Amino acid sequence: MKMKHAFLYSTFFFMAFFSPLLWSAMAKKISQWLILAIGAVVALAGGEVFSQQYNFRTYSLEEGLAQSQVFSMCHDSRGNIWFGTNASGISIFNGIDFKNLTVKDGLVNNTIQAMFEDSKGNIWIGTDGGLSIHNGYNIKNYTVGMGISSSKIQSIIEDKSGKIWLGTKTGGINIYQEGNFEIIITEDGLLNNNIKALFQDNSGKIWASCYGYGITIFDGSEISYFSTANGLLDDEINCFFQDKHGTLWIGSEKGITIISDISNLENVKPEYQMTGHPVSSFYGDDQGNLWIGTKGGGILKYNGKNFLNITEINGLTNNHVSQIAGDNAGGIWVGTDG
Length: 338
Description:
Blueprint: E1 14-18, H1 20-26, E2 34-45, E3 48-58, E4 70-75, E5 81-85, E6 90-93, E7 98-101, E8 112-117, E9 123-127, E10 131-134, E11 139-142, E12 153-158, E13 164-168, E14 173-177, E15 180-184, E16 195-200, E17 206-210, E18 214-218, E19 223-226, E20 237-242, E21 248-252, E22 256-259, E23 271-273, E24 279-284, E25 290-294, E26 299-302, E27 307-310, E28 321-326, E29 332-336
Antiparallel strand pairs: 1-3, 1-29, 2-3, 4-5, 5-6, 6-7, 8-9, 9-10, 10-11, 12-13, 13-14, 14-15, 16-17, 17-18, 18-19, 20-21, 21-22, 22-23, 24-25, 25-26, 26-27, 28-29
């Protein structure tokens, strides 16, 4: 999977790509800051250039977004999209307008690093000041001294048994079940206590990015490790994704490690995709495309054969992408660093 393309640097923003169906349904309801534009999406694969048109629409403070620097996103089961911002709380978009939540509404902190909806419909919110849980009506907060081991929560997942895993900046992993937190730190087997990303694969294993040291893997009975020492491209891991074929994609500061068979990491022979910029996020759409966010290189869209590079030159507002999410109508939402 080799690609030839050029990445461009730019400023900061947050935007959405709408499918034609979604755009026609929503165009009358929403006005400007995610931009409205039609851009040519250019992919360079094997030296060939392909183009495709997308509808872009951009949202900003003028439309009700709390802040232009978006750190995290969550598409909930009710169809709302939650945007976690830097120091300005959360903006919730219902398809028509935004509702904003801050510490005045009960959040524990206004800088939102991670959000996740659990199987019961609760939204778990990781902040720079602790954990908030929104049940649709009320917000419950946890801070250091109330069970969690660190005030900065960077990643959240739910495992197949219903336990909630929290990755913290300095306190390792916190696992929540029935009102109690279990703490896992280096003394328990973690490579380090800075957990940048968490992921559960199809077999049930939990992959934890111990940032700068590689990956700690939990299989339910024992702990194993994966790092540059045994095939990982880079030990600074930002995100994970497993596609429909079971292939694991690991995004890092140097690019992507691709593992087609994760059952035997001792003899793994990974592929590497050099992106030219750090990889910040993955999103898999319903058509089987993989959308890859980068820090400075815009977006890569991989259709299983070719990589298409979407940057400012094609209409993207900013090349520094923090998060990518989808909605029920096939729209792709992109959050950036400003």
